[in-house]
Amino acid sequence: MSAKTGSETGTSTGSGDTNTTGFGGEALRRKRLLGKVFLGACFAATMVGIVALIALLVDVTVEAWGWVTWEFLTYPPSRFAENYNPANYGSLDTGPGGIYPALIGSIYLIVLTAVFTLFLGVGSAIYLEEYASESRLTQFIEANIANLAGVPSIVYGLLGLAMFVRALQTGSSLLAGALTLTLLILPIVIVSSQEALRAVPDSMRRASYGAGATKWQTIRNVVLPEAIPGIMTGIILSLSRAIGETAPILMIGAATSMFAPPRLTQPTDAFSAMPMQIFDWAAQPQGDFQHVAAAGIVVLLTILLLMNATAIVIRNKFERRG
């Protein structure tokens, strides 16, 4: 009787293990299926963006093919579409048309924006991360900085119009444009710089303090060198966004077209920028201006790619050094 009971018990237990294993295998298969579905959805979402980007690049490149020349980069704009066509260069009386003043205006605008952003953005991040104590005020400031990163760019344009153009009487100048773009990208730079500073191990700070260094010496000689790749990457990518913005500089009254570039030594000069010039060309009714606008877009995209490549090179250089 005892053996029989044991046999029955063993059979029952084995049957229970089989059922449990079968249920676990079914759950595992379901999870794997859901994982594959999720992976497929992520891949499809990625491909939508990539295909749209490729289609845009192909369309712009086809429209601009043959229109991006050295003359296009070095001559001021023209009112006549035929002046931009390279096939007509030999028969022109007024000279070719180009994007030169807007190109120089954009470069000067980004240079001034980079200077303001470097001091204000990185300085604010160092203070909030290294000096400011944990308090409700600090948390309130950091929460508002993070929220400001999502504010539409046209709001910053209105703020720049009220603060710089009218209150400070700078007019529609290069300085007003640079300060407005600084406000636009400042929250992004502060947040990215804080993350880069936060990523530096505390053990390096403690080792510096243990060697007798002051707080500022520790930040300057230990923390900042380690955080430079992340800080510089955030700044350059933010500037890449700023150089393509139209709404803020449109609100402060930047010129849609100029025949002479601004002077970097005179930041109160009026200016134009590539997004404004491209917008003006795209609004023209003549068909050839669509080729001209596409050529301007190619120039702008080239500068954006060069800036992004610079960010990658700087990051990799300092990471290898570290």
From TrEMBL:
Stretch list, region Disordered: 1-23
Alphabetized InterPro entries for the sequence: MetI-like, MetI-like_sf, Phosphate_PstA
Cellular compartments annotated: Cell membrane
A biological process from GO: phosphate ion transmembrane transport
Regions that span the bilayer: 37-58, 99-128, 148-168, 174-197, 292-314
Compositional bias of kind Low complexity: 1-21
Membrane topology reported for the UniProt record: Multi-pass membrane protein
Location (main, coarse): membrane
Keyword Cell membrane: yes
CDD domains given in the database record: TM_PBP2
GO molecular function: phosphate transmembrane transporter activity
Domain of life: Archaea
Pfam families per record: BPD_transp_1
Gene Ontology CC annotations of this record: plasma membrane
Domain (ABC transmembrane type-1): residue spans on this chain: 103-310
Keywords per UniProt: Cell membrane, Membrane, Transmembrane, Transmembrane helix, Transport
NCBIfam families, A to Z: 3a0107s02c
Protein family membership: Belongs to the binding-protein-dependent transport system permease family. CysTW subfamily.
Stated name of the protein: Phosphate transport system permease protein PstA
Originating organism: Natronoglomus mannanivorans
The encoding gene: pstA
